Structure formats: structure tokens, C-alpha cells
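Researcher: Re-running this chain for the archive, since the previous output was lost when a drive failed. Same request as before.
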Amino acid sequence: MRTCLTRAWARACRFSIFGAAAAALSLLTAAASRAQATEEPGGEAALKLPDLTQVQFLNGSVDGHKLLLFGILFCVFGLVFGLVIYSRLKNLPVHRSMRDISELIYETCKTYLITQGKFLLVLWLFIAVVIVLYFGVLAPVPGKSIAVTLPIILAFSLVGIAGSYGVAWFGIRVNTFANSRTAFASLRGKPYPIYHTPLEAGMSIGMMLISVELLMMLLILLFVPGDYAGPCFIGFAIGESLGAAALRIAGGIFTKIADIGSDLMKIVFKIKEDDARNPGVIADCTGDNAGDSVGPSADGFETYGVTGVALITFILLGVKDPTVQVQLLVWIFVMRIVMLVASAAAYFINGPSPKPATAGPTK
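Model: Regenerated C-alpha cells:
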């Protein structure tokens, strides 16, 4: 088994090297075929954010910068909301044997995530070479020193990877809590706990994911000088896309291999797929968590962030009036904050409504 893993790791590294070399070659070819332009190139790295304080909102009572500062408070509330539900799930009653199994699954998931983290760092090294070639040699950000923009892009690419990786880890921890608690709640034969526990787990992950992503983007928007926000956004987008792609693809492959391995044990040794004697059961459960929790969590984080960067790019490139630019930028982020508040409100409003269904079936 160790030999197989070593070979797989070596092949993955060789594939990463080949992919990075191919990407670098593509960039060099594109640069060679492109004439040296004197005009200022476009792209996210060259974007310049307008001054958010120049436009007033709410009948002139607050400017755009101060209005979005309140959004940071809502992001903090969203983080607290996610952590409170996490704590509630952890403290739900659970049978010791069920808890032991879920902890065993989590430990296996943790091993998987640590391995993925090492692979992501190796992959990032090759992507960093491509970033240096492109933004340092082929298409440097106009009007800015490479010694400043390159470290910013590289640093924020690591921030993006850390964001995708962090929410994936949080998601798998919450899910392994919810797995055993839901199983134990089902022993009472009442439908509401079986519905409510997974719902709380989903709300905890979702609120944490969106709050972290929105907080990072607001920090860039509000506290980074407008001339350097573009490199921050492009680095952040590259990092979270890289992390989400690796975690999504590897999670899907892992769950398929684990599922097939469990099936093979069933066929070869005549042990049922979900029999406790089947050593593939834990691997199969770990694969299900890896494929259905790690990947979607990181992918959701990446999707939310990249769409935000795309909207900012569209506004700054498609609208020429700085006042309208500020109005649209503030509007899209206020809408994102309102969505966060609406999600929490819907949870609290709709939470008590199914409770009359908690009674067991009539005899």
C-alpha cells in the first residue's frame, strides 16, 4: 500500500511539473506572437479601484467606505453564527460507539487533507513560477514596480489557497460531527431531528464559508490602496481556484477509489459492503466525506470569490464614470451582506415551524 501511494505521489509530482512547463511554454509562445504594445494592458491586475468615500449614500449620511465597514461586522456575526452551530452539533447527544466511528472517519479524513495540503504546496510552487514569468516578464502591471506587485500576487494566492483549504477542513469536521449525531437521533424514530441536524450542519458550513470569503474581499476593497487592489484580487482568485480545483478533483477520485475498494472486499471475501468486518467501510465513508464535503466546500468558496472578482472587473472596465463605479461596487457588496443576513433570518424564522411534526407515528 505504501509503495502504491509513493508511486502515485511521484506520478502526481511529474504531472504537475509537466503541466507547469506546458503552461509556461504557452505563455512564452503567446508573448512571442504578440507585438509589443505601448498602450496600457487590461486585466484584473491592472485595475484601479475608485475612492469609495467620494459617493454618499442614505441621503448623504454615510459614504461608501463607511457603509461597507458595517459589512465587516456582519461577516463577524456570520462567523460567530457558524461557530455557535458547530458547538451545538458537537454537544448533541451521541452513542459512544457511533462517536468513535465518526472520529475514526474524521482521523482518516484528516490524513487525506494533510496529504492534499502537501500536494497543494508543491503545486503552488510550479504555479508561482508561471505567475513570476507572466506578471514579472511577459505582462508586468503597468506603472507599478514588479518588486511590489509580484509579492502581492504570490502572497494573496497563498491566502486564496488557505481559504479554500480552511473551509474544506471546517466542513469535514462539521459533517463528521453531524453524521453520528444524526444516526443517534434516528433511533428515537422521530423525523424532525433527522432533518434538523443535517440542516444545522449545512448552515454552519455555509455561513462560515460565505463570511470568510466576504470578509477577505471587503478587507481588500476597504484597506488596500486602490492602485494595488487589482494584484490582490487576481492573486486571491488564482489561489482559491487552484485550491478548489485540486480538492474537488482529488476528492471525487478518492471517493470513487474507496467505494470500489469496498465493493471488491464484498466480492472477493463475501463480506457485505457495510459490514463492520469490511476494512473498506471506513475508507468508503471517508471517501464520501471527501467527495461530498471537501470538494463542494472549497468549490463554493472559490465560486463565490471568483464571481465577486468578475463583477468588480466588469464594473471597472465597463463603466467609465467613477461615481457610478462606486455606486455599483457598494451595491453588489451590500447585496451580498443582505444575503448573509437573510440566510440567518430564514434559519431562525423557519426553524420552529416543522416542530409539530416531531410527534411519532400514531398507533
